[in-house]
Amino acid sequence: MRSRGQESYEDVHRFWEKLLLESEFKDMKRFLVVAEPVRSLNLYEAAGMARGKVIANVDPYEKEFDKVVAGAKIITNRGVDNKVFNSEKDAADWLLEYADVG
Q1: Phi-psi region for residue 52, left (φ > 0), alpha (ψ -120 to 50) or beta?
Q2: Could you report the average pLDDT of every consecutive run of 10 residues in the chain (102 residues)?
Q3: Domain residues for 78?
Q4: What is the pLDDT of residue 35?
Q5: Listed residue (23, 1, 22, 26) closest to 12, CA to CA
Q6: 3: Cβ–Cβ under 8 A, 6 or more apart, which residues?
Q7: 32, 34, 73, 98 — which has fewest CB within 10 A?
Q8: Cα torsion at 15, 52, 23, 83 (round to 10°)?
């Protein structure tokens, strides 16, 4: 999944709802997210929506990386397996390793 641009909070929410609903029908559990969002979901709401999924998040903004990692810890504590990466390749490799182990 790749996100970029001027989306509203409602757009982001609808997108995740649709993605997660479709993932249930297709039995998809792992996601590689490369995002440059202008707005994002509330962490607690995101965790509730994505519970039971595995998300590898690529953060393109080096200055925001620590904040994104801190948010990932909150989401992990609420039942979503996730990790933040600097590169798409590292994120994809982690997802593949996770699939082999998990």
Answers
A1: left
A2: 60 78 80 63 72 82 79 85 89 83 56
A3: 2-101
A4: 66
A5: 1
A6: 12, 15, 33, 34, 35, 36, 37
A7: 73
A8: 60
- Show the tokens assigned to 64: 């925001």
Here the CATH number for the domain that contains residue 37 is: 3.40.50
How many domains, in total, are found in the chain?
1
- Write down the pLDDT at residue 102: 54
* Order of strands, sheet of 54-58, starting from the edge strand that comes earlier in the sequence: 2-5, 30-37, 54-58, 81-85
Token couple for 7: 């989306």
Instruction: Report yes or no: 1 and 33 within 8 Å, Cβ to Cβ.
Output: yes
Q: CB-hemisphere CA count at 13 Å for 51? A: 7
**What is residue 22's predicted lDDT score, i.e. its pLDDT?**
82
